[in-house]
Amino acid sequence: MSEEISFRTKVVHASLGIDEATGALNTPLHLSSTFHQPDFDNYHAFDYARSGNPTRQAVEEAIAKLENGTHGFAFATGMAAISAALLTLSQGDHFIISGDVYGGTFRLTEQVLPRYGITHTFVDMGDLDAVAAAFQENTKLVYVETPSNPLMRVTDIEAVARLAKEHDCLTFVDNTFLTPVLQRPLDLGADLVVHSATKFLGGHSDILAGLVVTNNEALAKQVYFMQNSTGGVLGVQDCWLLLRGLKTLAVRMNVGTESAQRVAEFLEADERVAAVFYPGLSSHPDYALQQAQADAAGAVLSFDLGSEEAARQFVNHVHLPVFSVSLGAVESILSYPARMSHAAIPEAERLKLGITPGLLRFSVGLEDVDDIIQDFKQALAYTVERSAR
């Protein structure tokens, strides 16, 4: 078959593991912690499951194909993947990181890595002059989250990667929100991509998983060393569930993205909503950049109802979304970042970043979008404080 196939087709076949022995369409579950070796001098590719497992290898190969990378690594959680990536740094190293990253990444950066002598500078990645000014003699990498969580700010991956290369640094990108269906950072000059595969890649709120992809051989060796040394690998059964989720990734992302666009447009038109954050809106300051570097804006948006009380009333009266931590599932998920995903960030810092008491994050699932909008309409009627723009 020609290599010129659509990405939707590529997604299905990257995760299709036809078993050579039986013809089974799904990758076998290799439930073994250790592997018999032929003899004293000859060894199989697999010896101990922490170091490698055939089922996990299928996941790692699949995500590498989808991100146009050469090496993939599967971890027990998204934070395990991010930790392994950032622990390629050493004592005395410095890195630059997006100012409004996920709360777990913020906690790792602020409270864990400094204990190992690894320093950082938070910057507004939308300000390339600020990024350029943040480089130090010991800077080794730039860590980007785009679109950012939860304010959906967009970073110019190509421009940041170019700046990093000028300083002999690497660029890491968290691609959780868009997945390789909509954005492929390695093609834009990034050196490594991380995912919380718990989210869209898994897609069913039934596993925790993290993935790392790179096309840099030396970096791949460092990531594998950390994976094997620290042992936070993805379990075999979760690998199988992740492969199952990947098969429908393109369809789920496309439906969720189309629905998110309509929900964002509805919210933007409602005077009770103080602000809507979604880079698919032409009013978003990074709309043109998002259009240039990604295929669409994704299935996550945030909106501000002006106060905690208004947000509380909305959550109490909406019916279809679950009110929960996480995102990227077949069911729509409504979250309150100030007390959920970003609770680890001190309040003063949250407010400085724009994570206000009235901010809600919405991950659009596969429900009929007309039902979602109707549900939002009735819930907005209960918001007790209305913010005029």
From TrEMBL:
Cofactor entry: pyridoxal 5'-phosphate
UniProt enzyme class: lyase
MF-aspect GO terms: cysteine-S-conjugate beta-lyase activity; pyridoxal phosphate binding
UniProt xrefs under Gene3D superfamilies: Aspartate Aminotransferase, domain 1, Type I PLP-dependent aspartate aminotransferase-like (Major domain)
Keywords assigned: Amino-acid biosynthesis, Lyase, Methionine biosynthesis, Pyridoxal phosphate
N6-(pyridoxal phosphate)lysine: modified positions: K199
InterPro entries: Cys/Met-Metab_PyrdxlP-dep_enz, Cys_met_metab_PP, PyrdxlP-dep_Trfase, PyrdxlP-dep_Trfase_major, PyrdxlP-dep_Trfase_small
EC number(s) from the headed UniProt entry: 4.4.1.13
GO CC, any one term: cytoplasm
An annotated GO BP: transsulfuration
PANTHER family for the chain: CYSTATHIONINE BETA-LYASE (PTHR11808:SF50), TRANS-SULFURATION ENZYME FAMILY MEMBER (PTHR11808)
Entry similarity comment: Belongs to the trans-sulfuration enzymes family.
NCBIfam families (alphabetical): PRK08064.1
Protein name: cysteine-S-conjugate beta-lyase
Gene source species: Listeria riparia FSL S10-1204
Source taxonomy: Bacteria, Bacillati, Bacillota, Bacilli, Bacillales
